[in-house]
Description:
The chain is of the alpha+beta class. The chain has 2 domains: about 20-275, Cupredoxins -  blue copper proteins (Immunoglobulin-like); about 275-405, Immunoglobulin-like (Sandwich). It is built from 5 helices and 26 strands. The protein has helices spanning about 1-20, 75-85, 200-210, 325-340, 345-350, and strands spanning about 20-25, 30-35, 40, 45-55, 65-70, 95, 105-115, 115-120, 140-145, 155-160, 165-170, 175-185, 190-195, 220-225, 230-240, 240-245, 255-260, 265-270, 275-285, 290, 300-305, 315-320, 360, 370-375, 380-385, 400-405. The strands form 4 sheets. Strands 1, 2, 3, 4, 5, 6, 7, 8, 9, 10, 11, 12 and 15 form a 13-stranded mixed β-sheet that branches. A hairpin with a 5-residue loop joins strand 17 (about 255-260) and strand 18. Helix 4 (about 325-340) packs antiparallel against helix 5. It is globular and about 65 Å long. Mean pLDDT is about 85; it is low at about 1-15. Keywords: Signal. This is DUF4198 domain-containing protein.
Amino acid sequence: MRKTFILCLSLMYFSAFCQSYQFKEGDKYIVKVDALDYAFAMPDTIPSGWITFRMMNKGMDTHMAYIGRKPDSLATQEFIAMVYNPKKHYEGIGYGGPGLHSSGVASETTLYLESGEYFMGCGAITEKGIKHSKLGMVRYFHVSAEKVKSREPKADGNINITKFTLSHDLPLKGGKNTFKIIHDGPDANIHLIKFDEVSYRNAAESYLTNLTDPTPTKMLGGSEQAEKGKVVYVTLNLDPGDYSWMAYFGFPWGKDVPFTIENSGKLEANNETYTVQTAIDLTMTANGFSISEELKPGVHLIKIRPSDLKSHSPVLFRFKEGVTSDVFKDYISNFHSALVNKNKVKIEEIRQSNPWLGKEIRMNNHYSSNLKITFPPGKYALYCMHAFTTHEAHFHKEEPVFFEVK
Length: 406
């Protein structure tokens, strides 16, 4: 009798949990997600269709909720084992998901989910350098064949993103807004940041370079990485203040859209969007690189001969304000020396004075012979990092290219 009573109580609690964490609300189907340190609270099974994840960060650290789907090539149990393996970072098929949230922040993120097996994971990093997913912040869930009668949201503004480009059509007002994030290329993310006397730009740039807490940066949500063609809707309430849509790792490459909400509610944005596309030939020889023409601010298609990538490793850097080519050369030379000599203390010491913004672009890690990149005004360097950790490093014998975009 006692066992039966306990079982009934357990079933009642589970039923109440499911009902309170997913429900129909007007034209939306809501699935509540609580981000904790370091776990997700959400239902095990949800329906298919347009699903709105109402995420609240109830932890102290910054959290995100990347959503990945099981590829057809994997069995379900194999997929679950890969998701929960703390030694490996697994992505599956990217669908986006709620972006970076500071502690206490909530947002709504809507995306279309087909029936299948999925997981949610957080890739933010603790002060000790441990990825949240390795601490257990991953969650497998099933999307059933039952399709909900929810509608695709109506957008107030659009943002198109690839890994190194962004274009936008922002709304004209503050208050409640729904942004349509269109993934025009893979591996792209975008997040909204609010700036004030505590959450300032330098702190945001520092955090977006390594995703490591603690940070004073106020993250309000956004879209995690998704496959090309996916669409994610993000609904936020925007009070008066200064904001920017930015991407981790990609913010130096034009993925930085500042705007202001006036006290009147009007949205004032810098509508300069880099859309002019020019093809640039990047030639590699035994003596170094050459670029076919002077670059102007904008989106450029960098064309590389695939054969060059077999014997060269071109890496593009954008300088921090005030950095000169001589300072950059000294940094690369000193860092190489520390790596070759395996001096871990020196390596970490040198890294603290990193002279470039955000994440460098390793061209042979991407789309081989054609790579579309946004070049904002600034100073840049192009180095060959082939065999960089050895005495045979190419940068010793190949001249780097330094150039300015203005």
